[in-house]
Here is the input.
Amino acid sequence: MKQKTIGVIGGGLGGLSAAISLAHNPAHKVILLEKNAHLGGKLNVVSKDGFTFDLGPSILTMPHLFEQLFAMHNRKMADYVAIEPVRPHWRNFFEDGKIVDLTADPGEMTGEPSCLTDEEVEELRGFLRYSQQLYQFSDQTYFQNQSEKTLDVLKYYNPLKILRDCDFFSTMDDGVRKRIHNPYLIDILNYFAKYVGSSPYDAPAILNLLPYIQWEFDLWYVQGGMYNLARGLERLIHDLGIEVRKDTEVTEMQREGDVITALVLQDGSKVVVDLVVSNMEVIPFYERISREPNARIEPYRKKYGPACSGFALHLGVNRQYDILRHHNFFYSKNPQKQFHSIFHAKTLYDDPCIYLVAPMKTDPAQGPEGCEVIKILPHIPVLDKDTPFTDHDYAQYKEAVLSKLERMGLEGLRASIVTEELWTPATIQAHYYSNQGAIYGIVSDKKKNKGFKTPKHSAFYHNLYFVGGSVNPGGGMPMVVLSGQQVVDQIYQNKRFMAL
Ligand SMILES: Cc1cc2nc3c(=O)[nH]c(=O)nc-3n(C[C@H](O)[C@H](O)[C@H](O)COP(=O)(O)OP(=O)(O)OC[C@H]3O[C@@H](n4cnc5c(N)ncnc54)[C@H](O)[C@@H]3O)c2cc1C
Here is the structure.
């Protein structure tokens, strides 16, 4: 049998998923090329002074999408990586001292500390029914049938029901406010936009499917640290005999017309290919690898701009905070102003909503006894040549964030720091080549793209496909893993490739 060579650029979760899914067919010879020394991309880790810092994702949802990667090769995920549910899901802190725990069973939120009334819990349950309807719409059109644009949806969904079932005319915030009256719950439900690095005031209401996903599929921690998920997938890749070259950057490509014939590596050597799957994002690929003229890239920049970036500050502290849970959110007094600062004004707002992870609440082995790992991740604007931030800006921002946390209950935080690791948008961009240092791929914006990301099949090269956060179904670990599985079906529909 003549094997066809498929070059996968990048070993992030999207690239790993594509490589594993493609290797299912013995006619494919898959070669995975990763510029960094580790696999997993943004799922990354560093150890420092006895503390382990997961540098990327901290929340795992929809683990069944990961299980599929193992099951398609007749293996069990549990033999490679162990996961456990986190309780409560999130703890939410407000400036007036109110604490609301988001529990796995909404019924438990009537008790301490959330203290919602029975009516408020009923409203939340009603919201979750709406969220489920949005999920079912997306599942049919987007997850199972791979709609890549609005018109595709008509092929897979009853046109008479579309406007109602996806709450077409609303933003996320509209959809929340129509159904919820408790002001704390409004902020919390709006903050699910975090999962896609977007603003609830700009994102289409379809993204209100996120709370249903969290409640239905639960929220998980990877035992031993999130990076063990990448280690598990690497072991699977190894067991399947897929060729992996780390420390190998693709810098150029060779082409004949609309066909990519070879990938050129940084040492000048070539990998001859029949097809390419790029886990490098769409815009960076067209800028750096195929080097398209600006006029070709500009429409993508307008429609598919980057999601937010993050100010990822990892602290090792020599004390513990009883008030924290594994996942914590410290809200802004003015969320509207905060989201405006990230996506429109492009400024560093001094009262951000701060996402704080304290993984030692679940896994004490992540740091020395009596200590705490504290990862702080407020969302901030992506790199922008018109509004560059200086080291001084970031230093001021860091002070604002730490003093907000001290004010809201983490007394003595600054004095207890024994080690730290800071990743800014520039660090993120340099490590993963994401567009402008975005952490979730493409922004979900009702006006710009209605929540759609770039289609997976390149408009310029017949044998080029993309996976990961810059294509449908979008950013976040489960979605990029799904993109790697979905791309195989699209490749099978490529008659020119199949005829080779
Ligand atoms: C701080 C942070 C917190 C997050 N929190 C969460 C969370 O809690 N839950 C969640 O689900 N998601 C979270 N995310 C988002 C999640 O990490 C991403 O959506 C997902 O991991 C992206 O996977 P990807 O495959 O699309 O891209 P990446 O992980 O960026 O992978 C792309 C890979 O391609 C490689 N590459 C790029 N160019 C080249 C080249 N020219 N040659 C060779 N290799 C190349 C890169 O090195 C990288 O390994 C977070 C992200 C960050 C940064």
